[in-house]
């Protein structure tokens, strides 16, 4: 695709159960190859377990290479996770939603019901979605978008769908305007600041607070929020904290085909650098190859890390992806997109009494480019070897704050229930989706990058330890 703005085209061509834990501990040393700073756990009683990392590429929710579908056309998402559609296993699907037929009318209920059935199929298939609505789609639909009043009306009509499926909508892209919903070449002059800002405000009001909104161009983000999002504002639910970025011509040239304003890319990249640890970042490479030197592995790895990329297209643009394969970084990018949590060490008691104190410590490294953007529970699981009964103990921590290239020290400080049956218990770590509809589904739980810890049937990570309760 060619995501140009008309005014920039010539320039582009030129260029839980019981007590929560006590939180995270400070970071200290930085040995190479360990995922960053290694914290020192406080003195704890128990067995120390060291874990072996893994270089395996595997799926995790809300991160990785994505594949793309037209939501209104494709109905079978069952093969997405196994790679049956594009020979690329994925947990995230980028979906276009066509509204072209309704650019001069309301959306009929029959079409809304049709979209609802497609969303339900995606939920059942165990994937999450990045959604973009469009009217104009060169080569597929016409080149006309809708008048502003019609766009605002359609946003209100779509509001119930977004609320009902907020558990699987990873992020919404602003869409609606111009070719591919990419905010350029609008037939109704929607690609002007006053119209763009009204659509952004309408989307933020209509979307559930849990769904962030991604904008294509840095000039639009800066106009709305001249001061970059501060760490103290992160994840606070404000409009600014919900605005992320998608770059649909990543590495295409100095200004990435209009992603950055002409000759302002250094300043705008500094802005982007400030916010991307706290907001969603996704996109694709493209066929505008004026900046081929920027498409090398060395540049790609540096910018994916600098801007905390979580998701990028694994099917477009193939010449860039093939270059990453030939230069040897494709698999590293596949592993490091988004978060990649790895157990380093645990200190776990070997024997406890019912009703007594239960303390354990974990060290978890983040080897990815980013941290999670959506909330995530962290639970210690005790599972009876005799009965299989499960007991959950929440740890008071927020994985959204587990920074890349650093290691977190986590402490569970809880009390065992007085009526806990005596016996042997496997100790496991569970990072489930917080949505009740997805919390028990293993494909929506986070898998750790270690050998011999993942349970595919439960979504638990074994801490490779047995605790005796008496």
What are the defining features of this structure?
470 residues, alpha/beta, 9 helices, 21% helix, globular
Description of the molecule:
The chain is α/β, with parallel strands linked by helices and 470 residues long. Helices cover 21% and strands 23% of the residues. It has helices at residues 9-14, 109-124, 148-164, 193-206, 218-224, 265-275, 297-306, 318-327, 330-336, and strands at 23-24, 47-50, 64-70, 92-98, 128-134, 169-173, 213-215, 243-247, 281-283, 311-313, 341-348, 351-352, 357-366, 379-384, 390-394, 407-415, 423-430, 454-455, 460-469. A hairpin with a 5-residue loop joins strand 14 (379-384) and strand 15 (390-394). The protein is globular.
Regions with little confidence, pLDDT below 50 for 5+ residues: 1-34
H/E series, N to C? Answer: HEEEEHEHEHEHEHEHEHHEEEEEEEEE
Strand content: 15-25%
Tell me the structural class. alpha/beta
Indicate the percent of residues in helices. Answer: 10-25%
Strands, total number: 19
Question: Measured on Cα atoms, how large is the radius of gyration?
Answer: 23 Å
Could you describe the largest sheet, including whether it forms a barrel? 8 strands, parallel
Oligomeric state of this protein: single chain
End-to-end separation in angstroms reads 64 Å
The strands making up the biggest β-sheet line up spatially as 9-8-7-6-5-4-3-10
Basic shape: globular
Q: Taking all residues together, what is the mean pLDDT?
A: 91
Contiguous helical run count:
9
């Amino acid at each position: 695709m060619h995501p140009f703005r008309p005014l920039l085209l010539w320039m582009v061509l030129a260029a839980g159960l019981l007590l929560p834990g006590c939180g995270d501990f400070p970071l200290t040393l930085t040995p190479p190859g360990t995922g960053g700073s290694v914290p020192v756990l406080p003195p704890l009683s128990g067995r120390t377990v060291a874990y072996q990392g893994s270089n395996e590429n595997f799926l995790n929710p809300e991160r990785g290479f994505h594949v793309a579908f037209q939501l209104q056309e494709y109905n079978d998402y069952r093969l997405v996770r196994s790679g049956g559609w594009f020979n690329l296993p994925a947990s995230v699907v980028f979906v276009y939603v066509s509204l072209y037929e309704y650019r001069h009318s309301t959306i009929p209920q029959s079409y809304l019901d049709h979209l609802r059935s497609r969303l339900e199929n995606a939920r059942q298939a165990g994937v999450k979605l990045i959604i973009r609505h469009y009217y104009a789609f060169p080569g597929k639909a016409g080149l006309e978008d809708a008048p502003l009043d019609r766009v605002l009306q359609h946003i209100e009509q779509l509001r119930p769908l977004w609320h009902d499926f907020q558990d699987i909508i990873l992020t919404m892209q602003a869409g609606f305007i111009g070719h591919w919903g990419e905010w350029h070449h609008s037939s109704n002059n929607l690609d002007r600041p006053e119209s763009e800002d009204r659509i952004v405000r309408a989307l933020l009001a209509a979307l559930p607070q849990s769904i962030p909104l991604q904008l294509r161009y840095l000039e639009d983000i800066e106009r709305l929020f001249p001061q970059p999002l501060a760490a103290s504002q992160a994840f606070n639910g404000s409009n600014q904290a919900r605005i992320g970025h998608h770059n649909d011509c990543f590495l295409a040239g100095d200004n990435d085909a209009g992603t950055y304003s002409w000759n302002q890319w250094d300043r705008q990249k500094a802005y982007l650098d400030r916010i991307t640890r706290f907001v969603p970042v996704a996109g694709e490479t493209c066929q505008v190859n004026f900046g081929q030197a920027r498409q090398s592995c060395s540049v790609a790895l540096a910018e994916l890390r600098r801007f905390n990329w979580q998701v990028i297209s694994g099917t477009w643009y193939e010449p860039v992806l093939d270059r990453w394969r030939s230069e040897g970084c494709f698999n590293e990018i596949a592993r490091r997109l988004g978060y990649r949590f790895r157990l380093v060490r645990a200190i776990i008691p070997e024997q406890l009494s019912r009703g007594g104190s239960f303390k354990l410590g974990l060290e978890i490294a983040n080897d990815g480019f980013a941290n999670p953007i959506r909330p995530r529970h962290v639970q210690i699981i005790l599972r009876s070897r005799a009965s299989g009964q499960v007991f959950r103990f929440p740890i008071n921590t927020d994985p959204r704050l587990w920074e890349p290239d650093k290691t977190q020290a986590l402490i569970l400080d809880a009390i065992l229930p007085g009526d806990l049956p005596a016996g042997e218990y496997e100790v496991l770590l569970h990072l489930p989706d917080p949505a009740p509809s997805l919390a028990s589904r293993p494909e929506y739980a986070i898998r750790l990058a270690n050998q011999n810890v993942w349970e595919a049937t439960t979504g638990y990570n074994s801490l490779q330890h047995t605790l005796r309760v008496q």
